[in-house]
Amino acid sequence: MKFLKLIFRNTMRHKLRTFLTVAGISIAVLAFTLLRTVVGSWYSGIDAASADRLIVRHAVSFVFSLPVAYYDKIKTVPGVANVSWAVWFQGQYKDPKEFKNFFPRMAVDPEHYFEIYPEIIVPKDQWDDFRKERNACVIGIKTAQQHNLKIGDIIPINGDIYPGKWEFVVRAIYKGRDRLTDETQMLFDWKYLDEGMRTRMPERSARVGWYVVKVARMEDSPRVSAAIDALFANSSAETKTETEKAFNQSFISMYSAIITAMNFISFVIVGIILLVLANTMAMTAIERTTEYAVLRTLGFNTRQLMGLISGESLTISAIGGALGLAAAIPIIKGFQAAFPNMFPLLPDPTITIVLGSSAALAVGLLASIIPVLRVSHMRIVDGLRHID
């Protein structure tokens, strides 16, 4: 206990220096944690992908559509347990310049889509109402909360991919089964979209964006994927079938440069923390050279002096890291609440805490290495002759 008390007193000897160092570490840990959370949120969509779901899209690009007639053929492939489809509708809601007005809007096949995605939980009574009305929609609870939408409200959308003015009635609000479920989507009946296209642009009717296939056994996924693509080989709309995880990964790869930059910056921040704390510890070691020599003459051995220096460094880094993490968690939660459509899925906060804590403690140890080496090789007589 006396040894720990000595470490604490040494830490607080220069209060202003300690305060500034702790503040610098706190800000750096906060920035590091926020960046790691952003990077982690990008990959959460991959983690949420189901191993028994396949995505069938146009072989050339995701932006090209597929005939709805493919549905019956895909169902006949051995190993296919269920099939549905979806269309990226999007459109403009309120002011398109405000990012908060962006949230995923898709036309789906309600007959089977919700069976393949059981993580989307819709109350039974709301589901019944949704199925009775052609222009009804289901929205995620986060989108409902952000835009103050409730059952019966009208959502007007100005079409961009699908031109025209569209109106949707909120008939159901879904919740996610677990933390990895995206609760920001708006889903509506594909038939409403198709009927509109028959009137406005007949050549674009009877088309879907992609198919979602549930396989009976996960190990059959490669065989089922190859069989589906073989069905439509040499057709006017060839397909590419891949696992849902690979499909989501392809979207992440489009932003690989940004993610790589964020990863790099996050570790640069760790380096900055190290330099700040190392500078403090180096100054401390130089100032206390004579004191360390006196302690050696009083019977303190090298290991005990190393413990004093390392303990002080770890104390400063631990306090700074704790304050940075304490500030990061509410900021992250507040940011997600304000912009749920930007980061609908956040990584497990436990991972974030572990990363931030590990970075702070690792820096505390590394920053003490040079002062520790200096003391361990110092002769008592040289230390007593030292002048600050």
Q: What share of the residues lie within helices?
A: 40-55%
Count of β-strands: 12
Content-based structural category: alpha+beta
Annotation field: number of helices: 15
Mean pLDDT: 83
Low-pLDDT residue spans: none
Gap between N and C termini: 30 Å
Instruction: Report Rg.
Output: 30 Å
Question: What count of structural domains?
Answer: 2
Tell me the β content: 15-25%
Question: Secondary-structure element order, as H and E?
Answer: HHEEHEEHEHEHEEEHEEHEHHHHHHH
Choose one word for the global shape: elongated
How can the largest sheet be summarized? 10 strands, mixed
Can you walk through the features of this model?
With 388 residues, the protein is α+β, with helices and mostly antiparallel strands. It folds into two domains: 174 residues, no CATH class; 172 residues, no CATH class. The chain has 15 helices and twelve strands. Strands 1, 3, 4, 5, 6, 7, 8, 9, 11 and 12 form a ten-stranded mixed beta sheet that branches. The chain has a two-stranded antiparallel ribbon with strand order 2-10. The longest helix has 37 residues.
Topology:
Blueprint (H helix, E strand, L loop, with lengths): L1 H10 L3 H33 L5 E6 L7 E2 L2 H6 L4 E9 L16 E4 L4 H4 L3 E2 L2 H9 L3 E5 H6 L7 E6 L4 E13 L9 E4 H11 L6 E2 L1 E6 L5 H11 L7 E5 H10 L2 H32 L1 H9 L4 H37 L10 H19 L1 H8 L3 H6 L3
Parallel strand pairs: 4-9, 6-8
Antiparallel strand pairs: 1-11, 1-12, 2-10, 3-4, 3-11, 5-8, 6-9, 7-8
